Amino acid sequence: MELANTLSQDGESRGGVLAHLERLETQVSRCRKKLEEPQSTQAVESALGTRIHELRRLRDKLRAEVKQHQARVKASTTNVEPDQTLEITEQEILKRKRENVKAILQAYRFTGISGKLTSRGVCVCIGTAFEGNLLDSYFVDLVMQKPPQIHHHSIPVFIPLEEISAKYLQTNIQHFLFTLCEYLNAYSGRKYQADRLQSDFAAFLAGPLQRNSLCNLLSFTYKAEPEGQSFPFCARLLYRDLTTTLPTDVTVTYQGTDALSTTREEQRAAHENLFFTKPLHQVFTSFASKGDKLDMSLVS
Amino acid sequence: MRREPAGDVGRAKEMDETVSEFFRRTILKIPMTEMMTILKTWNFLSENQLQTINFRQRKDSLVQDLVLLCEENRASLKDAALLDIIYTQFHRHQKVWDVFQMSKGPGEDIDLFDMEQFKSSFKKILKRALKNVTVSFRDAEENAVWIRIAWGTQYRKPNQYKPSYVVYYSQTPYAFTSSSQLKSNLPLLGQALTIASKHHQIVKMDLRSRYLDSLKAIVFKQYNQTFETHNSTTPLQERSLGLDINMDSRIIHENKIEKERVQRVTQEIFGDYPQPRLEFAQYKLETKFKSDLNGGILAEREEPLRCLVKFSSPHLLEALKSLAPAGIADAPLSPLLTCIPNKGMNYFKIRDK
Q1: To the nearest whole number, what is the mean pLDDT of chain B?
Q2: How far is B46 from chain A (nearest CA, A)?
Q3: Which family does the similarity line name (chain A) (predicted)?
């Protein structure tokens, strides 16, 4: 058909020849390709074949590893024998020792004075307590230079820290810390008593409890029986010694205008004595437990 | 704005016009958002009484109603003064506070501070000196007391609109006073404070700020409250000052060592705690001119040069702390700047030694 097209006109016969040559060329290249095709497909085939082999190999390898691992796990869980524990490494022993020491260091704060070394010196923690109750902790961060100095602290401003450090810090650090400990524990104890009175025995108080920062002056009006007919007494407690939790001066007075009966006078004197000898909240606990009767046997 | 309470014509003592006006102006100052809280804190008008007031009306009418209610309940100047104290406690930043330090003689007895004695003594001293003075007290937390003083003269009644305030924590040597416009009363105030609190001397510190709580933190040394213990879970060293040096591992800082030094020095000086808040530091210089060059006009000058340098900031100490890490100043900063909380000063006079 193509031949018929090319031979129809003169002008096109040359084009026809060229076209014919072109056709022959394409035929040749087509034949060549056909020859190569099985070769390239063969190459692709063989490449794919090798790939399949590789993948199979990898798969077998992984299967073997999984089997091994499972066998190992099985072996380790079944063999819980004493000789296995010998394999605990040195590292684990040291780790346990370290945690032990850390726990002891943390527990040290229950002794009242504990500390931690810092880059400049030591940070001392003074823990306070009263009657077995743990109360606030206070810190003093010391710079251990030739004259030791206080870097910063959490001691309340009304505690005479400057006085105490002026007396002892340079010469005897131990004494400094023990004195500070005394003051802070006493302050905490007094504060605890005042707080207990205000919160637990509010029913006994006829008016607000007057106190100050150091809790070394307490003034209040109270009744020994909250609902009873007893007359209110005024108590004024002074703690002149800042290292104690019991008052140094106690005055219990009667508020009314008429003279006190003898029983009331005895009561007043007994109360005064109680405040001298027992912590404040314990006195009120004894008031509460006495009920209606006034037990004179409490006077020791 | 006075009206006879109905049915009480014979019995009621009418509220003084000045007191009424004082109530009106004091209540008017209170922002609407705080009105309920402040009135409840004042506790002069009961819940039931407050419920009779419409709090949704315009402020002027609300204030009128409240003043009327106060009049009906025979509120006195004392009650108004208390309301003024409460307003000031809520808005303490509106005043500028000075700090005074008192001292006792050596070997003094233990301070057995009695709040009632202090109050009566303080009031007595002022009243003895000035016939016309209004003194009011309000107890505050931590065994402190807020004192309000309205000053008058021998012949004039106290001016309720320019009161002085004093905040005193018992058994401490410090008192905080609002800078009063009436400076002439300061010596008397100091005297009353000193004697009533059983001290001998009083001295004004070179420390001033609007932030009363920061002043307290500075003089009570409460601003640095981080302590190393065995019980703390966060290690102190691992916190950085906001310098994210290791943000991107592809970036290498050439001056990494210097940056770390600056960070370390800043942390040593300023610590890890939030700085107390001050608004300015002022340095008055009176020094002779010092020059390396020989000669020159100023070098021959005998008189010292006077100059005033003032640093201002919404939060001066935090700003100073960030100067070196930001690269604006060298670290360590001048001790004149870093000693502010330690020395409890933000006013300095620098003279030649």
Answers
A1: 88
A2: 21
A3: Belongs to the CENP-O/MCM21 family.
Predicted pLDDT of residue A87: 61
Give yes or no for residue A5 having a pLDDT over 70: no
pTM: 0.79
Q: What is the mean pLDDT of residues A188-213?
A: 94
Contact call for A123 and B142, based on CB within 8 A: no
Per-residue pLDDT reduced to its tens digit, A39-68: 788 889 999 999 999 999 999 999 999 999
Q: In chain A, which residue's Cα lies nearest the Cα of B222?
A: A154
Residue B87 bridge partners (DSSP): none
In the predicted structure, residue A172 carries a pLDDT above the cut 60: yes
Per-residue pLDDT at B116 = 95
CB contacts, 8 Å: A154 with chain B = 222, 225, 227
Residue B140 has pLDDT above 60, yes or no: yes
Q: What average pLDDT does range B296-313 have in this prediction?
A: 83
* Across B101-124, average pLDDT: 90
Position B12 scores a pLDDT of 45
For chain B, the residues whose C-beta falls within 8 A of a C-beta of chain A are 109-116, 142-143, 169-172, 174, 219-222, 224-225, 227-231
HEC states along chain A? CHHHHHCCCCHHHHHHHHHHHHHHHHHHHHHHHHHHHHHHHHHHHHHHHHHHHHHHHHHHHHHHHHHHHHHHHHHHHHCCCHHHHCCCCHHHHHHHHHHHHHHHHHHHHHHCEEEEECCCEEEEEEEEEECCEEEEEEEEEEECCCCCEEEEECCCCCCCHHHHHHHHCCCCHHHHHHHHHHHHHHHHHHHHHHHHHHHHCHHHECCCCECCCCCCEEEEEECCCCCCCCCCEEEEEECCCCCCCCCCEEEEEECCCCCCCHHHHHHHHHHHHHHHHCCHHHHHHHHHHHCCCCCHHHCC
* Alpha carbon B279 to chain centroid, angstroms: 12
Taking contacts as CB-CB distances below 8 angstroms, the residues of chain A near B110 are 216, 240-242
CA distance A176 to chain B (A): 19
Q: What is the DSSP letter of B92?
A: G
Q: Report the C-alpha gap between A156 and A184 in whole angstroms.
A: 9
Q: Residue B292: is its pLDDT beyond 90? A: no
Residues of B within 8 A of A125 (CB-CB) are 227, 229
Of B220, B221, B231, the CB nearest to A106: B231
Interface probe with B: pick from A213, A215, A243, A249, most Cβ of B within 10 Å: A213
The complex scores an ipTM of 0.84
Q: What proportion of chain B, given as a percentage, has pLDDT over 90?
A: 69
Q: Closest Cα partner for B230 from A117, A112, A100, A105?
A: A105
Which among B116, B228, B230 has the least Cβ separation from residue A102? B230
Residue B311 pLDDT exceeds 60? yes
Size of interface A-B (CB pairs under 8 A): 74
A268 CB neighbour count, 10 Å cutoff: 17
The SS3 call for residue B204 is: strand
**Distance in angstroms (rounded) separating the CA atoms of residues A145 and A122:** 11
Per CB-CB distance under 8 Å, the chain A contacts of B231 are: 106, 109
**Partners of residue B227 in chain A, C-beta under 8 Å:** 123, 125, 139, 141, 154
